[in-house]
Amino acid sequence: MKKLKIAIQKSGRLNEKSVQLLKNCGLSFENYKSSLITAVSNFPLEILFLRDDDIPEYVQDGIADLGIVGENVIAETEANVHYLQRLGFGKCSLKIAVPNHSDAKTLADLNGKAIATSYPTILKKYLDANGISADIRVISGSVEISPALELSQAIFDIVSTGGTLRSNGLKPFADVMSSEAVLISKNGIDGNPVVRELIQRIQSVLRAAETKYVVLNVERNNLDDIVSLLPGVKSPTIVPLAEENWVAVHTVISERDFWEKINKLKSVGAQGIVVMPVEKIIL
Ligand SMILES: Nc1ncnc2c1ncn2[C@@H]1O[C@H](COP(=O)(O)OP(=O)(O)OP(=O)(O)O)[C@@H](O)[C@H]1O
Ligand SMILES: O=P(O)(O)OC[C@H]1O[C@H](OP(=O)(O)OP(=O)(O)O)[C@H](O)[C@@H]1O
Ligand SMILES: [Mg+2]
């Protein structure tokens, strides 16, 4: 079978989590970044290590069949690719920010102003859609420093915790887009059996990451209350304990409402609650 190629970031914010995701899918490979391409020994796939800026176009042009990249980079390159799966990491926003002392209040106050960014395409589209005419200054990094250097009166860049904005005396002014890492493919390849198998594995890893395996003990006369709180994958597993009238309940709980659920379980008699990570959930 012809090997497919997946492009991931060579180094930077998405590299480690992309590598980890593929490894969690059971793919075995050496992380030889210096070779820029590595073969997976137990799955028909090769991994290309690239600058993230190049990934959408490589996938669009079929040089790579699949890619893992931020939605922001896809939007900036305007590459024509197919979205297969959101991956839940690399979450950030793209915002316009202005100096803390700026008196700009509405978007119209940006008319005629200089805005520094590494994302000119996304910014231009946003300004055009809002009827704003500004001078877009393209710089490749350290964008947040440009107002202090009097290169611009505003910036447009990635914001996550907001720490970089704060430490450069800037405040958020307009939210333009949110982004996370996504799995993309070239058009027309999503029916390929290797792609389908990879998506299935990725989904089972993502499902597991949102889930905890929980074992708890409860007296039989409180069991109905406990079970009514627990969906499980199908329904919880009930195992009798050596002590009469007691059972152990095995189930999975979503990370999202984990503490709320645990507190409710305790309030209806759950004891000795043990929580474990889940590696994969295959439906
Ligand atoms: N602070 C952040 N928090 C969360 N995600 C981020 C953050 N900064 C960037 N990202 C996401 O990670 C991607 C890669 O960021 P990184 O800073 O490694 O890019 P880069 O310097 O352009 O890398 P490359 O050398 O591959 O061109 C971004 O395009 C964005 O999707
Ligand atoms: O809101 P924050 O949590 O501070 O994150 C935002 C910063 O993160 C990214 O830079 P990164 O740290 O990846 O460095 P880079 O400029 O070298 O890409 C981005 O370009 C911002 O500068
Ligand atoms: Mg880049």
From TrEMBL:
<dbReference type="InterPro" id="IPR013115">
    <property type="entry name" value="HisG_C"/>
</dbReference>
<dbReference type="InterPro" id="IPR001348">
    <property type="entry name" value="ATP_PRibTrfase_HisG"/>
</dbReference>
<dbReference type="Pfam" id="PF08029">
    <property type="entry name" value="HisG_C"/>
</dbReference>
<keyword id="KW-0067">ATP-binding</keyword>
<comment type="function">
    <text>Catalyzes the condensation of ATP and 5-phosphoribose 1-diphosphate to form N'-(5'-phosphoribosyl)-ATP (PR-ATP). Has a crucial role in the pathway because the rate of histidine biosynthesis seems to be controlled primarily by regulation of HisG enzymatic activity.</text>
</comment>
<dbReference type="InterPro" id="IPR011322">
    <property type="entry name" value="N-reg_PII-like_a/b"/>
</dbReference>
<dbReference type="InterPro" id="IPR020621">
    <property type="entry name" value="ATP-PRT_HisG_long"/>
</dbReference>
<dbReference type="GO" id="GO:0005737">
    <property type="term" value="C:cytoplasm"/>
</dbReference>
<dbReference type="InterPro" id="IPR013820">
    <property type="entry name" value="ATP_PRibTrfase_cat"/>
</dbReference>
<dbReference type="GO" id="GO:0000105">
    <property type="term" value="P:L-histidine biosynthetic process"/>
</dbReference>
<keyword id="KW-0460">Magnesium</keyword>
<keyword id="KW-0368">Histidine biosynthesis</keyword>
<dbReference type="InterPro" id="IPR015867">
    <property type="entry name" value="N-reg_PII/ATP_PRibTrfase_C"/>
</dbReference>
<dbReference type="Pfam" id="PF01634">
    <property type="entry name" value="HisG"/>
</dbReference>
<keyword id="KW-0547">Nucleotide-binding</keyword>
<keyword id="KW-0963">Cytoplasm</keyword>
<keyword id="KW-0028">Amino-acid biosynthesis</keyword>
<keyword id="KW-0479">Metal-binding</keyword>
<feature type="domain" description="ATP phosphoribosyltransferase catalytic">
    <location>
        <begin position="51"/>
        <end position="203"/>
    </location>
</feature>
<comment type="similarity">
    <text>Belongs to the ATP phosphoribosyltransferase family. Long subfamily.</text>
</comment>
<protein>
    <recommendedName>
        <fullName>ATP phosphoribosyltransferase</fullName>
        <ecNumber>2.4.2.17</ecNumber>
    </recommendedName>
</protein>
<dbReference type="GO" id="GO:0003879">
    <property type="term" value="F:ATP phosphoribosyltransferase activity"/>
</dbReference>
<feature type="domain" description="Histidine biosynthesis HisG C-terminal">
    <location>
        <begin position="208"/>
        <end position="280"/>
    </location>
</feature>
<keyword id="KW-0328">Glycosyltransferase</keyword>
<dbReference type="GO" id="GO:0005524">
    <property type="term" value="F:ATP binding"/>
</dbReference>
<dbReference type="GO" id="GO:0000287">
    <property type="term" value="F:magnesium ion binding"/>
</dbReference>
<comment type="pathway">
    <text>Amino-acid biosynthesis; L-histidine biosynthesis; L-histidine from 5-phospho-alpha-D-ribose 1-diphosphate: step 1/9.</text>
</comment>
<keyword id="KW-0808">Transferase</keyword>
